[in-house]
Amino acid sequence: MTDFSRRTLLKTAAAGAALGLAPAYLRQASAAEPIQVAGIHDASGGIDIYGRPMINSLTLAVEEINAAGGVLGRPIALKNYDPQSNMQLYTQYATEAATKQKASVVFGGIISASREAMRPTLRRFRTPYFYNMLYEGGVCDRNVFCMGSTPAQTLQKFTPFVMKRFNAKTIYVLAADYNYGQITTKWIRKFASENGGEVAQADFFPLDVNDFGPTIRKIQAAKPDMIMSVLVGAAHNSFYRQWVAAGMKDKIPMASTTFGIGNEQVLTSPDEHDGIVVSYAYFDGLKTPENEAFLKKYTDRFGDKADAVTEASAMTYHAVNLWAAAAAKAGSVDRDKIIPALEGGLSFTGPAGKTTIDPKTHHDTLDTYIAEVRDRAYHVLESFPQQPPADTAAVCDLAANPNETKQFVIDVKS
Amino acid sequence: MDYALIVILQLVVTIANLALISAGLAVIFGMMRIINMAHGEFLMLGGYAALVSHQAGLNLWLAIFVAAPVTVGLIGAVLERLVIRRLYGRMIDTMLATWGVSLALVGVVTVIFGNRVSGISPPLGSVPIGGYAIGLYELLTAGVTSLLFLGGWFVLRRTPVGLIARGAMQNRDMAAALGVDPAKVYATTFVTGAAISGLAGALIAPITGVAPSIGAVYIAKAFITVISGGTAILTGALSASALLGSVNTAFSFVMTPVLGEVALLAAAVLLLRVLPQGITGRFFRRSL
């Protein structure tokens, strides 16, 4: 360095000063070593429509907690993994989060297949796991907390509601071909027959199917009174488009257990979705002070164009807050201390209303709603406050059998 | 009666769909013996070309019938110049190279548009047939496919260009000795195949939507159709589409759509066991 100008001299001096301060900063950091938290959600691939709003909520919840001083005086270090809608990567990232990152808790999993891919891994490494998507129910595992709604909370009310609304006796079910679709279809069969109707036919589709022409012709031949869509993922979205193109829109009404949890109301046009009836534990149109405050924070943080908040996204926010409250109560993030704290009837009131963890099933007691899609928005038709997870409770009691690890498949006789 | 009609129409639509997604591949494989692994991505690019130009304000029909084939044809021209031309006659190398191209195209499109499905609603509405209905747009794609094959037949059989193309395809050296530049013929063929794929992708896009990885859904079916068809470009693709499409539709209606797909694959396996040279290796041998 021949010409040591004043500018470089100043730069060097500044760098030196910063270096001098570094030890003090590092000392402070070691006093409050961050708590490692992992988020494993698809941010790309066919399932990304569900993942993106969940990742936003997770990020927002962690940032809020950190701004308020962290958990037990320690900041949270969040690491987001993107399994790219690939089930194999779920297992890999769950292992990485548990071993390399040494995460104290994992939030994640979207489709049921991904949850079942991660569950044994996280149990083996004794890492508590929150699954925040609505699903088919029945998971009974002390290491797992399921925050989303299950069929007894939604479908039990929803099936008779839509049958009455559409004056329907026969239902044609279109479902995704994996555990969620198969089990949900069984529930629909059960609730339909209990209410004097029946499932005329159920067709199952792998997640990459995007041509529904023959199916639509079959539906026309079967002439059901209504359609129940249990379709999942971006490829299946084309069904709604093809349904309208075949001129079926105003002929046979439709309800869905999945439409909207990937913000399909934004991806399809009002022509395609007006009149579809759905049932979830959260809609972004809820007019509660908690929800309005949450939505404002969400929009401020991620902008107007961010993916709209879905049930899974709201439940992710609830999950992080419940976990933080349990940590404060237990005085530790250690698995063996935090799980009993979570089992102590902990509840959180947030955007989706009041959610309380049921100690026997590790599921949520929550509010559910039935709504109609119209002009890219949901209009709530009816609400059912504080629904217990009765389906899982019928088969699962973790207080009596804490070592249970399976997902019970409800045996539904049709 | 109207049910029979709707089943027949669905059958026609399914067959036309298979023929449409295979046409571009059939041209490139049949004329040049090049296995183009990037065929699915050509379809995907056609879809995006139509979608983007339509969203930019272009009339939907112009977007599908002009913008998409021109764009993908140009991309095909560039690829032919940079990659394919250097690998003529080396089948395995071309497969590898075009597979690499396919991965690169998926990557580039993912970076630009994101790994998500975008779509346009199918235009035209539907026609009622008795108590049933079928989308007019689906029937239109079937019509366009027939025109495409008729046009292909006319060009190959009745024009000087077609004669040169057939000559170069049958005997490259002899054609060269007679003053035809095979390189030029091959380049034109590749660009034509790419443009047809672009058109096909654009035509399908309103029905299925487009995503960067959507090519993978089509490539297997397109390959199976072309290989089952055998050496004759047009008759092969058409007859294989008719056979496999019928099997698919029959099983879809009687059983489930998933078994329809399985039956299609099983039929292709059986067919190639019985007729290793494809349908046109045994029947319609003198056809195109």
Structure write-up:
The complex is a heterodimer of chains A (414) and B (288). Chain A is built from 14 helices and 14 strands. Chain A is an alpha/beta fold and 414 residues long. Chain A has a domain of 197 residues: Response regulator (Rossmann fold), CATH 3.40.50.2300. In chain A, strands 6, 7, 8, 9, 10, 11, 12, 13 and 14 form a 9-stranded mixed sheet that branches. About 2% of the residues of chain A have low confidence. Chain B has 288 residues and is mostly helical. Chain B has one domain. Chain B has a two-stranded antiparallel ribbon. In chain B, strand 1 and strand 2 form a beta hairpin. The longest helix of chain B has 31 residues. The chains are: A alpha/beta (414), B mainly alpha (288). Chains A and B meet through strand 7, helix 7 and helix 8 of A and helix 1, strand 1, strand 2, helix 8 and helix 10 of B.
In short:
Chain A is of the alpha/beta class.
Biggest interface, which chains?
Answer: A-B, 40 and 45 residues
Distance between the termini of chain B: 36 Å
DSSP summary: helix tally of chain B: 12
Distance between the termini of chain A: 84 Å
Radius of gyration of chain A in whole Å, from Cα?
23 Å
Report on the biggest sheet of chain A. Answer: 9 strands, mixed
- What would CATH call the homologous superfamily of one domain in chain A? Response regulator
Features:
heterodimer; A: 414 residues; alpha/beta; Rossmann fold; nine-stranded mixed beta sheet; 14 strands; 41% helix; globular; B: 288 residues; mainly alpha; two-stranded antiparallel ribbon; 12 helices; 2 strands
